[in-house]
Automatic annotation (TrEMBL):
Additional comment: Reaction proceeds via a cis-phosphoenolate intermediate.
Domain of life where this protein originates: Archaea
Keywords per UniProt: Carbohydrate metabolism, Isomerase
UniProt cross-references to InterPro entries, sorted A to Z: IF-2B-related, IF_2B-like_C, Initiation_fac_2B_a/b/d, M1Pi_N, NagB/RpiA_transferase-like, R15Pi
Protein name, as recorded: Ribose 1,5-bisphosphate isomerase
UniProt similarity note: Belongs to the eIF-2B alpha/beta/delta subunits family. R15P isomerase subfamily.
Function recorded in the entry: Catalyzes the isomerization of ribose 1,5-bisphosphate (R15P) to ribulose 1,5-bisphosphate (RuBP), the CO(2) acceptor and substrate for RubisCO. Functions in an archaeal AMP degradation pathway, together with AMP phosphorylase and RubisCO.
Binding site for substrate: 23-26, 67, 214-215, 240
Protein's organism: Thermosphaera aggregans
Length: 333
C-alpha cells in the first residue's frame, strides 16, 4: 500500500500498462478492470460511500493516465464507474460489491466478445486464403486461428511492426496455434500484397465516423490493400468505439520515446537529429471493408449505430455536457 492508499498491485498494473509489459487494447482494458477490483478489495480507508467513491475515482484517473490512445481503457473504467454511479449504493459494502461485480462482468464479456468475433470473422475467410496482419492483436490472432481450424488459411504474413516488434508476438502465437506464418518487415507489405486475400487487423479505437486508429503503419497497409483490391477487415470489440469522437474530440495519438527507434548512444551522438515515434495512425473508413464486432459485422460508416447501441450511458453523459475531458475523481462524487 502506498502513502496515498493505492495498493501496490494496482500501481504495478498501471506501470505495466505504461511500459507496455501489459499491452493490446483489450488486455489493457481488462487489466484496468482487474485493477479497480483489486483497489476495491484492498481498500483501507473510511468505510463510507463518499470516501470510497473519491478513492476509486482517483484510482480510475491513475489508470487512464497510463496510455492515451486505446479508448478501451477509459471505456472499461467508465463502464464500471458509471455502473457504480447508477447503482447509487447506500452503504460501503454495496458500493464495493458493485465495483467488483461490474469489473468481473466487463472481463467476462470482453473475453466472450473475442470468441464471438473470432467465430464470425472466420466465416468471412475464403478457403486457402493468404492473410496479412499487422502488429499484435489478440482478436486478430484468435480470428485467424479460428479460420485456420476451419481449413481456410494457407499462410499468414505477419509484419514485424517496428519499433516495438509486436509482430514477433503474433508470429510466435500463430505458430504455436499451428498456423503457417511468414514474418516480414513492415516495408515489405506492398511487395507481398498481390498474394494476399484478406488483411485482418485489430483496433485501439474506432471513431464515430468509422475511422480506425490502430498501430502505426496500419494506414499504409490499408492503402496497399486498397490498391491491390484486397479486403481489409477490422476485428474489434464494441468497447473500442469512442463516444467522445461523436462530439468532435480527436483521438489522442501516443508518441513514445526516441530510444524505441534508435539506441540512446546514437541519440547522444547525433543530438541535432530529431526522432519521431508515433505509436498509432488513423485509417479512414473508405479503406476498411468491414468492422467485425461481437454484435455483428458492420460497414465502418455504421460505427455510430454501435455507439448508440452499446454506449448509451456515455452518450447520456455527453448530452449532459460531461464526459469529454472527464476526470473520474469528480465523476465519482
Ligand atoms: P487487441 C495494440 O496496441 C495494437 O495496435 C493492436 O492492433 C491493438 O492494440 C488491439 O489489440 P499496443 O498496445 O485488443 O500494442 O486486439 O500499442 O489485442
Amino acid at each position: 500500500m502506498t502513502e496515498q492508499g493505492v495498493p501496490t498491485k494496482v500501481l504495478e498494473i498501471a506501470e505495466g500498462i505504461k511500459t507496455m509489459r501489459i499491452r493490446g487494447a483489450g488486455k489493457i482494458a481488462r487489466a484496468a478492470a482487474e485493477a479497480l477490483k483489486i483497489a476495491t478489495l484492498e481498500y483501507g480507508g473510511p468505510k463510507d460511500v463518499s470516501s470510497f467513491k473519491k478513492y476509486i475515482g482517483k484510482v480510475a484517473d491513475l489508470l487512464i493516465s497510463t496510455r492515451p490512445t486505446a479508448v478501451s481503457l477509459p471505456n472499461a473504467v467508465m463502464y464500471i464507474l458509471s455502473s457504480l454511479h447508477r447503482a447509487n449504493p447506500g452503504t460501503f459494502d454495496d458500493a464495493a460489491n458493485t465495483v467488483v461485480f461490474f469489473a468481473e462482468k466487463f472481463i467476462d464479456e470482453s473475453i466472450n466478445a473475442v470468441k464471438i468475433i473470432s467465430e464470425t470473422a472466420a466465416k468471412r475467410i475464403r478457403e486457402n486464403s493468404v492473410i496479412l496482419t499487422h502488429c499484435h492483436s489478440s482478436v486478430a490472432v484468435s480470428a485467424i486461428t479460428e479460420a485456420y481450424k476451419l481449413g481456410r488459411v494457407l499462410k499468414v504474413y505477419s509484419t514485424e511492426t517496428r519499433p516495438f516488434y509486436q509482430g514477433r508476438i503474433t508470429a510466435k502465437q500463430l505458430l504455436e496455434n499451428g498456423v503457417p506464418v511468414v514474418q516480414i518487415p513492415d516495408s515489405a507489405v506492398r511487395y507481398v500484397m498481390h498474394e494476399v486475400d484478406h488483411v485482418i487487423i485489430g483496433a485501439d479505437t474506432v471513431a464515430s465516423n468509422g475511422a480506425v486508429v490502430n498501430k502505426i503503419g496500419t494506414s499504409q497497409v490499408a492503402l496497399a490493400a486498397k490498391e491491390a483490391r484486397v479486403r481489409v477487415y477490422v476485428v474489434a470489440e464494441t468497447y473500442k468505439f469512442s463516444p467522445t469522437t461523436l462530439v468532435g474530440e480527436p483521438v489522442p495519438i501516443e508518441f513514445r520515446e526516441p530510444t524505441e527507434i534508435v539506441p540512446e548512444a546514437w541519440v547522444q551522438k547525433h543530438p541535432r537529429i530529431k526522432v519521431l515515434n508515433p505509436s498509432f495512425d488513423v485509417t479512414p473508413p473508405e479503406y476498411v471493408d468491414a468492422i467485425i464486432t461481437e454484435i455483428g459485422v458492420i460497414p465502418p460508416q455504421a460505427a455510430i449505430l454501435v455507439l448508440m447501441e452499446r454506449m448509451g450511458w456515455a452518450l447520456d453523459k455527453i448530452k449532459q455536457g460531461g464526459l469529454t475531458k472527464i476526470k473520474f475523481e469528480d465523476y465519482a462524487e
